TrEMBL record:
Protein name: MID49 protein
Entry keyword annotation includes Ligase: no
Record has DNA damage as a keyword: no
Gene: Mief2
Membrane topology: Single-pass membrane protein
Source organism phylogeny: Eukaryota, Metazoa, Chordata, Craniata, Vertebrata
Length: 467
């Protein structure tokens, strides 16, 4: 740019109209010099033709040699307009292909065309344009289709876990049974058996936990049940097992008398005794080496729990001492706090039996709906405590209303369960199907209930949020 201004100054010193013309010519020259950088080759060519025409027009109008010569002036004007006409005939550069057109072949001419003849497209050697596939419009899936897809693709337990976990758990069960018989032959433990969703075909996502039930055989003539309403916790879901007729059958008549606290069979004392055995008395490294896995008892847990690590699976086994009396199934699971001696009534066996019975009667989809809801609760951190018994009892309540549980109505029943759950959470009470006095939400905190209700309330209008 400095050279341009120096040249411009020298031409101005020359004075007159010729200096002005030379100055304009210099400006146009600079524009042409920089046009290629800014506009590219094709743009610079177009600008050059236009500039040339303008320069000729200016020189033709103001050049001294053309003054007084009309023919020369007319000739100069004609040449200028001819140059300007070249702008229209200058071929435009081909447009750059868009990203989506890069896959299409570019057509190239077969050769130079003879002036005045048009190229026959049938004679062109260019490959024909590939026909474009018609894009079908996206179809919106219904809730029924989404539920069935979610059920088949995401909830299924891996086959290796389905086959390996029960086998591994039964092997550990056998080893534990043999130990108890040799260590405590005086205690009439029943035969250990497996329980849980995996055993009953209701497991979802992963088979990573199983329950091991240890029956405690009691002489019904020496023991009786005290209803939960009559206990210190006033909770109908908990029971006490009382030692009776101590005057006629003093302590020692029952092998379980060593676990009595204040005339009641203490679930705490029995669990603590078994916990010590699991942690300190059983040679788990040897058993694990025999079964091809590593077994660790969980020392810090209040539950009787084993952690099992295999090359292909990781498994958690929880041991539950269980008493069956008067058609009640009681587990040695005392409530949190300082209260002892209480046994928790379990409805799991009755729940599974009732659901399968109802499905067998009307070819219903209750079990499928239960698996879907258990999968949702298990994968969602806020809904974790709703899985299992609460959802099962709610499905049983809805079954009494005469609802259609055919597979075609799965989406309607799924959404109805969500609506009912929100209503029960709003009240803070979900009565047990087998004992209406029991509130299945009694163990939940108020903050947990609020969070669950908020999540499910949103899902009522958009159930897909849970999938």
């Amino acid at each position: 740019m400095a050279a341009f201004w120096q040249q411009r100054g020298r031409r101005q010193d020359g004075g007159g109209l010729g200096g002005v013309i030379d100055g304009l010519g210099s400006v146009l020259d600079v524009l042409l010099a920089n046009a290629r950088l800014v506009l590219g080759v094709s743009g610079a060519a177009v600008l050059a033709i236009a500039t040339l025409a303008v320069k000729r027009l200016i020189q033709g109008r103001f050049s001294p040699r053309d003054e007084g010569d009309p023919k020369a002036e007319q000739k100069t004007l004609e040449e200028s307009w001819q140059d300007l006409a070249l702008i229209k005939t200058t071929p435009k550069p081909p447009k750059k292909q868009r990203r989506e057109d890069l896959s299409e072949p570019l057509l190239s001419p077969a050769g130079p065309l003879v002036p005045g003849e048009a190229q026959d497209p049938r004679d062109s050697s260019a490959p024909p344009e590939a026909p474009r596939a018609k894009s079908s419009p996206l179809r919106c899936l219904t809730l029924q289709e989404k539920l069935l897809s979610h059920y088949s693709s995401r909830l299924a337990v891996p086959d290796i876990q389905v086959s390996l976990v029960p086998q591994l758990a039964r092997s550990i069960c056998t080893q534990l049974q043999n130990f108890l018989r040799s260590k405590c032959p005086e205690l009439p433990f029943g035969r250990l058996f497996l329980s849980g969703a995996l055993v009953d075909g209701l497991e979802v996502l992963a088979a990573d936990h199983v329950h091991l039930m240890l029956p405690v055989a009691l002489d019904t003539g020496l023991w009786s049940l005290i209803p939960g309403e009559d206990t210190v916790v006033r909770n109908p879901q908990y029971w006490m097992i009382k030692r009776i007729d101590l005057g006629y059958f003093p302590r020692g008549c029952s092998p379980w008398d060593k676990f009595i606290v204040g005339q009641y069979l203490s679930s705490n004392v029995l669990s603590e005794t078994l916990h010590k055995m699991l942690v300190a008395s059983i040679n788990w490294p040897a058993i694990g080496g025999l079964l091809g896995c590593v077994i660790h008892p969980v020392v810090a847990s209040q539950e009787l729990k084993l952690e099992v690590k295999h090359d292909q699976v990781e498994l958690s086994i929880t041991l539950f001492p269980v008493v069956e009396m008067e058609d009640k199934v009681l587990l040695a699971v005392p409530p949190a706090g300082l209260v002892e001696n209480l046994w928790l009534e379990s409805f799991y066996r009755a729940e599974v039996s009732k659901v399968k019975e109802l499905d067998a009667g009307d070819s219903g989809a209750r079990q499928r709906c239960l698996r879907l809801l258990n999968g949702v609760c298990r994968s969602h951190p806020s809904l974790h405590k709703l899985g299992g018994s609460p959802v099962t009892h709610l499905i049983l309540h809805l079954s009494d209303t005469g609802s259609d549980w055919a597979e075609e109505s799965l989406a309607d029943r799924f959404q109805q369960v969500l609506e009912e759950l929100v209503a029960y959470l709003e009240k803070g009470v979900l009565p047990s199907y087998f004992n209406p006095k029991i509130n299945l939400f009694s163990e939940l905190l108020e903050e947990e209930i609020d969070e669950m209700g908020f999540v499910l309330y949103r899902a009522m209008s958009e159930p897909e949020l849970l999938l």
